[in-house]
């Protein structure tokens, strides 16, 4: 009995010992555990971002210097190189005379206060939070109206510091700046705009601003395009700008030349104006007695030309000089207006002619069959028998249609006892009638003169401006 008791106690102790040496199972929590190599000790793993107790040892000694002063303050001017990459030309506004551009602006300078010792990293990159703690160039855009730094998803600012103290400062900016445009040859014009960069506070004695790689400092995206303009070229220049109260400053220029596409204005302005002028010529083929038709056609073409001129000027700045498109539109307007005046002249001369005919018939009554007779050309509408009887021809003799188209021959018998003064009055009446006869001849001449003059004007216009 004591033997079995000792055996059971021994087995229980053995089981407890085995169970204590077995690894415990962990409850599943749904998270993956990363296994760490067995040869790495916790003491060898150092977290460089961990803030330790006591005085920190930062890699950049920002707190040890006064960054409100420029680098090498009191010495020569600090050189600041600049290069620009143009991302897009967003818009060109003729009314506001400005342009909007999105670009990457990069600055290069050396600040020995930011130098650090490093054996592994060639440079360190920071975001915009460090900008407020160090000195950066105070570059601004001259003649800018609006500008902002992009902040999606964070501020688009990058700062890269090299061990020897060289700094690269880059930002993504959209700026709207003024562009002095000359619309003398609009829409056959070319415009040259400039984006100007300059230090706001530091003169050329403190800060020397320059293009880092000359003309190679300006890069553009090949996909840049505008709907109304063809971008011909980008180039850079630099010069000194003087302010009477502060001094001389280095100023950098981003110049670009734009040439306007003419096809849009051909469709929207020139072709409609030309068609209105040609439409006004249709009235020359309409009968002069159709007063409502010719008057309504002339008025409609004049109003349409006025609408075209108003629409073009609404999209342009109110400049005090004459533009090329103004010359074309106003000359076209004059041609349309002259076609209306042409019919007014025809209608007036027709009325005068009819009045002269009535006076002559009253003054010189027809006495057919007298010995001494003279002929006079009159315009009127008579029947065939009346015309032949008035002319002294027998009814059997019929005049041809060509002879009776615009004039009839009336034999007015004059007495041989008439004095010389009466003969002079008769000759004056004959000359006046010949002048006013056939007023529709004005329409015939207009059918040739108006188109020929307008074609000649177009030849001169396009040869000079193109």
From TrEMBL:
GO cellular-component term (any): chloride channel complex
Gene designation per UniProt: GABRR2
Stretches assigned to the Neurotransmitter-gated ion-channel transmembrane domain: 269-462
Record-given protein name: GABA(C) receptor
Residues annotated as signal peptide: 1-20
Keyword Signal on entry: yes
Gene3D superfamilies xrefs: Neurotransmitter-gated ion-channel ligand-binding domain, Neurotransmitter-gated ion-channel transmembrane domain
Keywords associated with the record: Cell membrane, Chloride, Chloride channel, Disulfide bond, Glycoprotein, Ion channel, Ion transport, Membrane, Postsynaptic cell membrane, Receptor, Signal, Synapse, Transmembrane, Transmembrane helix, Transport
Single annotated GO MF: chloride channel activity
Membrane topology: Multi-pass membrane protein
Stored CDD domains: LGIC_TM_GABAAR_rho
Subcellular location: Postsynaptic cell membrane
Regions that span the bilayer: 262-285, 297-315, 327-349, 448-465
Reactions catalysed, as given in the entry: chloride(in) = chloride(out)
Family the entry assigns: Belongs to the ligand-gated ion channel (TC 1.A.9) family.
Boundaries of every Neurotransmitter-gated ion-channel ligand-binding domain copy: 63-261
Pfam families: Neur_chan_LBD, Neur_chan_memb
């Amino acid at each position: 009995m004591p033997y079995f008791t000792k055996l059971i106690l021994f087995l229980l102790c053995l089981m407890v010992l085995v169970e204590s040496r077995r690894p415990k199972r962990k409850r599943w929590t749904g998270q993956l555990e990363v296994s760490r190599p067995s040869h790495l000790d916790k003491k060898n793993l150092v977290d460089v971002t961990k803030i330790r107790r006591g005085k920190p040892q930062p890699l950049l000694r920002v707190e040890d210097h006064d960054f409100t002063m420029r680098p090498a303050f009191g010495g020569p001017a600090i050189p600041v190189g600049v290069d620009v990459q143009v991302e897009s030309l967003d818009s060109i506004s003729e009314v506001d005379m400005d342009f909007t551009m999105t670009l990457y602006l990069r600055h290069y300078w050396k600040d020995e206060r930011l130098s650090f010792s490093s054996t592994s990293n060639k440079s360190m990159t920071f975001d915009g939070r460090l900008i407020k703690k160090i000195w950066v160039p105070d570059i601004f855009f001259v003649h800018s109206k609006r500008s902002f730094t992009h902040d999606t998803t964070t501020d688009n600012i990058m700062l890269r510091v090299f061990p020897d103290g060289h700094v690269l400062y880059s930002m993504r900016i959209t700026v709207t700046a003024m562009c002095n445009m000359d619309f003398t040859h609009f829409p056959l014009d070319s415009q040259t705009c400039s984006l100007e960069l300059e230090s706001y506070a530091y003169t050329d004695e403190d800060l020397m601003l320059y293009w880092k790689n000359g003309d190679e400092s300006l890069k553009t995206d090949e996909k840049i395009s505008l709907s109304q303009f063809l971008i011909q070229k980008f180039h850079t220049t630099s010069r000194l700008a003087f302010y009477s109260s502060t001094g001389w400053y280095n100023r950098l220029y981003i110049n670009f030349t734009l040439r306007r596409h003419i096809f849009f204005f051909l469709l929207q302005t020139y072709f409609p104006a030309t068609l209105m002028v040609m439409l006004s010529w249709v009235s020359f083929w309409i009968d002069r007695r159709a007063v409502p038709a010719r008057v309504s056609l002339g008025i409609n073409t004049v109003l349409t030309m006025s609408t075209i001129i108003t629409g073009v000027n609404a999209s342009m700045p109110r400049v005090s000089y004459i533009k090329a498109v103004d010359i074309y539109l106003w000359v076209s307007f004059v041609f349309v207006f002259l076609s209306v005046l042409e019919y007014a002249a025809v209608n007036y001369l027709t009325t005068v002619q009819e009045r002269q005919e009535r006076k002559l018939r009253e003054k010189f009554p027809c006495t057919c069959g007298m010995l001494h007779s003279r002929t006079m050309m009159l315009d009127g509408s008579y029947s065939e028998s009346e015309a032949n009887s008035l002319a002294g021809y027998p009814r059997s003799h019929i005049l041809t249609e060509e002879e009776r188209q615009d004039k009839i021959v009336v034999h007015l018998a004059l007495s041989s006892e008439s004095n010389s003064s009466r003969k002079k009055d008769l000759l004056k009446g004959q000359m006046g009638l010949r002048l006013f006869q056939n007023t529709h001849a004005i329409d015939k001449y207009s059918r040739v003169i108006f188109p020929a003059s307008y074609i000649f004007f177009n030849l001169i216009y396009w040869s000079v401006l193109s």
